[in-house]
Design goal:
The complex is a heterodimer of chains A (465) and B (350). In chain A, 24% of the residues lie in helices and 35% in strands. Chain A is built from 12 helices and 25 strands. The C terminus of chain A is likely disordered. Chain A starts with 10 loop residues before the first helix and ends in a 10-residue tail after the last helix. In chain A, helix 3 runs antiparallel to helix 9. Chain A folds into 2 domains: 397 residues, no CATH class; 54 residues, no CATH class. Chain B is globular, with a radius of gyration of 20 Å. In chain B, the strands form 3 sheets. In chain B, strands 3-6-8-10-12-14-16-18-20 form a 9-stranded mixed β-sheet, with helices on one face. A 9-stranded mixed β-sheet of chain B has the order 4-5-7-9-11-13-15-17-19, covered by helices on one side. By secondary structure, chain B is mostly beta strands. Chain B has one domain. In chain B, helix 2 packs across helix 3. The chains are: A alpha/beta (465), B mainly beta (350). At the A-B interface, strand 24 and strand 25 of A face strand 19 and strand 20 of B.
């Protein structure tokens, strides 16, 4: 008896447009190149200086001595800035046809009509489309590209930009600080509840290039927001790099849900950084589906700084042939009565490698806090690999902490049970894998849950022997 | 005085998590080592000139080289009895015997069974240094129970590297009682290369004052239907710190194998710290691996209940710790040894 579970069907994602652009910076990473990016983007002086300092930090820091092998990454072969041949548009009609067709295929304009309150679409290094519903604008919600935010809300950006994720955090954050371009800026004013999600979609089309978008979200006191991030790229033979940065500020009594469906191509190194600072009685939920990339190193982080702050992480990774997905979550309990719940799952298949790597840190001042971590890994064959590497640091006695992890294959007993209830073997296995992924898919808006179920496309064959 | 970097994990994680290894500063690594005479053994323990020092992991080169070049006690134990044979090795540290560099080799012959107790005691307040290896070769169908008891005082340094090699159907049950040492650093590696081999490790640790425990257990499962169980229970008082790194590694070919790891830490003080890294590594499909880890203080309801029966807070705490350790203590057949350990728990929690 052998189950075959297909890898993700990437037909839609792998359609590539001709590599056309308005400007592409030469490959490499030098102060001259950084200055040129600043010139192209008409940065204010402080941002130019910031980029150059970040480059110095990048040159000083070492590559990680742990995790997947990154030796194939050669920054002298990566173009860090590619401006598409269009400006920022507020109407899809104004977006050039080939780019619009790309987003059409990805279903973005349709989703915007059906279920979103606002959409941002980035193509290579710049945002090409941004819009938001009128009623949110009237309530003072700001949802725009980072460049516009830097120009129109300089104080707000300067106060928050790379303060949550400082450039010294690690080498690829420093790289991001030097070459960032595009991304979304969201500000939700006090007590404003954004009931319908906003979505930004990031598409990298240009070969041998990188995408370094910066997402900065501030949910002010008592406000709430659901933000969805999607990303994809067509496959090329040479390495592409994604080193984005997401900074989230969830103020007192506010709530933010940040959902990601990541489906980069299998030549992509996804070295992304996401961090949230969560205030008093505020809530921060992460929902993450990681399906693409050749190598992924992604560990969203919540810092629970306010009394009573809560966070929840629900994530799934699916690694197929040639993929090494090193994902996980980090949480720091830094105030009284804080709580965190982590629910991570992974599926490895066809030689794919899934690693769950995490940190739970409960500081001395986090009295009366609670933390529950659960991770489950499913191995679908004996040429794949699945590792669980969680670090738990407890510095106070006033804590309820528990962590559990399981690793294994689809249970023969469960298949047998379902088959005894009249299901075919194929349907039984499909049900088990969908059930395995259900805790994540149920957290997504229905359109995205359907997309995720399609991504985990099951094809089962074989016989009981 | 020297700085040591010890006990590397088999797979590294982020340097910022401070758990890939342990760095100790200003450790007095003795150069002039005299004989260690205060030792009590049963007759089946032979003293030899040297034992093999080659280890797959071990605590680190500096300490392993010290054993290779400067050991002052090399012992060999051969278990060749089909009835359960009891063996005792007891090292008693004192003013004249305060440095022990030992290498104990245990060979458990095919179909043989035995119980071996290795004890490290200090009855005085003198600072001691212990650096040792225990290496077990468990041959086919053998069954051995090893009890390692560290009752050194809290001024000493205790370094120990343990390695097991298990052949087909061999069973090794380890009980480790780790109470002593200002620094107590343990590296444990088990190679379950034989089909249906089984290794159970039951550990209790108890820390107080400024004690530091760095415990690094690694089990590699290679044989079909091999089985590893790690059970680690501990309590930390005052400013004590514990790092527990437990790795269960299912290697290719270890089909139908099982691995379980369970760690619990009682935090008896708001200054105590617990750091854990329970790793599951898997390159085989048809296996079952589980780990669970938890930490917290003693429940107020439980304490209240015990205190309502006339016990003081300290006595209630001792009772709860002993109750938690009881399951592991029950696996020790020697009543005398269990009583001694219980006495130490009471004394150390006073």
């Amino acid at each position: 008896m052998k189950s075959q579970i297909n890898e993700i069907n990437r037909n839609i994602y792998d359609i590539k447009n001709k590599d056309e652009y308005d400007f592409k910076i030469k490959k490499g990473l030098t102060p001259e190149i950084i200055n040129e990016i600043s010139n192209q983007k008409s940065d204010p002086d402080w941002m130019r200086e910031f980029r150059l300092k970040a480059l110095e930090v990048y040159n000083r820091l070492e590559l990680p001595t742990w995790g997947p092998d990154l030796s194939e990454l050669d920054m002298s072969e990566i173009a860090t800035y590619v401006r598409p041949k269009t400006k920022l548009n507020n109407s899809w009609e104004d977006v050039p046809e080939d780019i619009k067709n790309t987003f059409d295929r990805l279903g973005i304009p349709e989703a915007e009509k059906a279920s979103l309150a606002g959409v941002g679409a980035q193509y290579d290094s710049e945002v090409v489309y941004h819009s938001m519903k009128e009623d949110l604008i009237k309530q003072g919600v700001i949802y725009t590209d980072m460049e516009t935010a830097l120009r129109d809300y300089p104080d707000l950006v300067k106060e928050h930009f790379m303060k949550c994720v400082p450039v010294h955090d690690h080498k690829f954050v420093a790289l991001h600080g030097a070459v960032w371009s595009g991304g979304s800026f969201v500000y939700v004013p006090k007590n404003v509840k954004v009931d319908i999600p906003l979505q930004s979609y990031f598409r990298l089309n240009s070969p041998e290039s990188g995408q370094f978008e910066h997402t900065l979200i501030i949910v002010d006191e008592g406000a709430s927001l659901h933000f969805i991030e999607g990303c994809s790229a067509p496959k090329y033979n040479k390495v592409n790099l994604h080193a984005g940065c997401v900074e989230l500020y969830v103020k007192d009594n506010a709530y933010l849900r940040y959902s990601t469906i990541e489906n980069w191509s299998k030549n992509m190194l996804n070295l992304n950084t996401k961090k949230a600072i969560v205030g008093k009685n505020a809530g921060m939920d992460w929902v993450s589906g990681s399906f693409g990339s050749k190598i992924s190193m992604l560990y969203p982080m919540s810092i629970l700084n306010g009394d009573g702050a809560k966070t929840e992480y629900t994530g799934i990774s699916f690694a197929g042939a040639g993929q090494n997905l090193d994902n996980g979550f980090k949480v720091v309990h830094n105030a009284k009565n804080t709580s965190s719940v982590v629910n991570a799952k992974s599926i490895s298949k066809n030689g794919g490698i899934c690693t769950y790597r995490s940190l739970v840190r409960v500081n001395e001042n986090a009295k009366n806090s609670k933390c529950t971590v659960s991770c489950e890994s499913l191995m679908l064959d004996d040429i794949s690999r699945s590792d669980t590497i969680p670090t738990n640091e407890i510095r106070t006695d006033e804590i309820e902490f528990s962590h559990e992890a399981k690793i294994g294959k689809i249970s023969d007993k469960t298949i047998f049970y379902l088959m005894s209830r009249g299901l075919s073997e194929e349907d039984a296995k499909a049900m088990i894998v969908r059930g395995f992924a259900y805790p994540i898919s149920k957290e997504l808006p229905v359109e995205y849950a359907v997309e995720m179920n399609n991504l985990i496309n099951l094809e089962l064959e074989g016989s009981i022997g | 005085m020297g700085n040591l970097k010890l006990n590397e994990t088999p797979i590294r994680t982020s340097r910022n998590f401070n758990i890939n290894n342990i760095k100790l500063e200003n450790i007095d690594i003795p150069k002039n080592i005299s004989k260690f005479n205060n030792i009590k053994t049963t007759t089946n323990v032979q003293e030899v000139t040297a034992n093999n020092c080659e280890l797959t992991y071990g605590l680190g080169n500096v300490l392993i080289d010290q054993i290779k070049n400067n050991s002052n006690k090399n012992l060999k134990i051969v278990v060749d009895n089909k009835k359960n044979e009891n063996t005792l090795v007891e090292f008693n540290f004192d003013e004249n015997n305060n440095i022990l560099i030992d290498n104990i080799e245990i060979i458990v012959n095919e179909n043989c069974t035995g119980t071996i107790i290795v004890k490290y005691n200090t009855k005085s307040n003198i600072q001691c240094y212990h650096n040792g290896i225990i290496k077990i070769y468990a041959h086919k169908n053998s069954n051995v129970k090893i009890i390692v008891v560290n009752l050194l005082n809290t001024k000493s340094n205790n370094f120990i590297s343990i390695e097991n090699e298990l052949e087909e159907n061999a069973k090794v049950d380890y009980t480790i009682v780790d109470f002593g040492g200002e620094n107590s650093i343990t590296n444990y590696y088990s190679n379950l290369k034989g089909d249906s081999s089984e290794n159970n490790i039951n550990t209790i640790y108890l820390g107080k004052e400024n004690q530091l425990f760095d415990i690094n257990y690694i089990a590699e499962l290679r044989g079909v239907k091999s089985n590893i169980n790690m059970e680690v229970q501990g309590a930390l008082n005052d400013n004590a710190i514990k790092h527990f790194k437990g790795t269960i590694d299912f290697k290719k070919g270890s089909k139908k194998s099982k691995g379980n790891e369970n760690e619990f830490c009682f935090l008896l003080s708001d200054k105590a710290k617990s750091l854990g890294l329970p790793m599951l590594l898997c390159s085989e499909e048809d296996v079952e691996g589980n780990h669970a880890s938890s930490a917290g203080k003693i429940g107020e309801k439980e304490l209240f209940y015990i205190m309502s029966r006339g016990f003081s807070l300290k006595e209630a705490m001792k009772l709860m710790v002993k109750a938690k350790f009881n399951k592991i203590l029950e696996s020790i057949d020697s009543e005398e040894l269990v009583n001694e350990i219980v006495y130490e728990i009471d004394k150390r929690l006073d």
